[in-house]
Amino acid sequence: MTFFSKTHRARRALAGAVAVLLSATAGSAAAQEARNVILFLGDAGGLPTLNAGGILAHDRPQSLFIHSMPHIGLSDTSSLNRWVTDSGAGMTAIMTGHKTNNSMVSAVPTGQNGAVAPVKTLLEYAEQRGLSTGVITNMAIWDATPAACFAHVGARKDKDEIFRQMLAPRFGDGVDILIGKGRADAVASLAARQTTPEQAFAASGYRFGDDPAIVRDARRAAVLRDTDFAPIPAVDATIAQLARNPKGYFLMVEWDMHTDDPKKGLRHVVEMDDMIRRVSQIAGKDTLILFTADHSFGLRTGGGERGTPLAAQYDAAAAKPGVTNATNDVISVQDGHTGEEVIVAASGPGADKVHGFFPNTRLFDIMLSAFGWKRDQ
């Protein structure tokens, strides 16, 4: 065998090895692209609230499922005009990649006589590309956090305009699955337009009702009620429906963690944590799962002894004469939003981009790039 033929064979072998390596790299890159993205938003779920919620429920630190998620970062929550954000500006940053003023919802100030301009949300990107979309909340469906997924208003209290945009979307056919509170609000708002929620949502292609189970049998469903609902069955049913779309889906789940009523807010922490644990089991490896908060809250754990349930110690302290939420020496609450960074916890394709300190606007880019999309120019 000549030197040339030996060299030629060696080159061919090397080329084959490189091809295999490139193919594996390409496969790895493809695996990094998410088919689905699920954003869990703990409203007011800052680190102090997560810490207290886990200990209150399990009597040990770092006991939430969230604490086990493999990728962790810390997100700045300041708004465009305030160091301490409200939910409108906080969720706008996450959903659009743009900071805005407090009380604005997926809109930014133009600087002209108080006018605002809409900014495109991740849910709208998904609708434009034919993915299925869902919004679940245990708050009013028109409230700032859910509204920032699909509406664009200069004032978060403008529920009439938010309902109008909910039923007249800019992209696609709008949110496919809506589950939340605010049925009485919808009745009042739509009455001004001489219609009812049943009529208005049916006209927009929704199956309408008050039982989250209806979403299993309807590609488009709106569930509005004024009472609490069981979270895990609602999320299970929604994912089962959204996952039927071969193109994938985007789902936002908000759970109220405000602790002006500490035990209620901390119970909601555990409810959302249980949801995330459940979803991580059923969503599939092609799903990016993110947890974060729009802002933190003025709760502090200031006492308590190991070996005795913290909940019992909190109740005992609360029963003392003159003790209020603000003066309870076990868990105290300064009732209001606070400005410190909040945790971002992630798993699935694209989760490795969650690390270090970053602005809340980066979450939009993380979700967008997980889908393999680029911002509109």
UniProtKB/TrEMBL annotation:
UniProt xrefs under Pfam families: Alk_phosphatase
The leader peptide range reads 1-31
Amino-acid positions noted as binding Zn(2+) in the UniProt annotation, renumbered to this chain: 43, 258, 294-295, 337
Binding sites annotated in the UniProt record for Mg(2+): 43, 143, 145, 254
Q: Which InterPro entries match?
A: Alkaline_phosphatase, Alkaline_phosphatase_core_sf
UniProt-recorded Gene Ontology molecular function terms:
alkaline phosphatase activity; metal ion binding
Which residues are named in the active-site annotation? 87
SUPFAM superfamilies cross-referenced by the UniProt entry: Alkaline phosphatase-like (SSF53649)
Which cofactors? Mg(2+); Zn(2+)
Keyword annotations: Magnesium, Metal-binding, Phosphoprotein, Signal, Zinc
How, per the record, is the cofactor bound? Answer: Binds 1 Mg(2+) ion. Binds 2 Zn(2+) ions.
Source superkingdom: Bacteria
User: Which PANTHER family does its entry note?
Assistant: ALKALINE PHOSPHATASE
The entry assigns this protein to a family as follows: Belongs to the alkaline phosphatase family.
Q: What is the designated name of this protein?
A: Alkaline phosphatase
Source organism (scientific name): Sphingomonas lycopersici
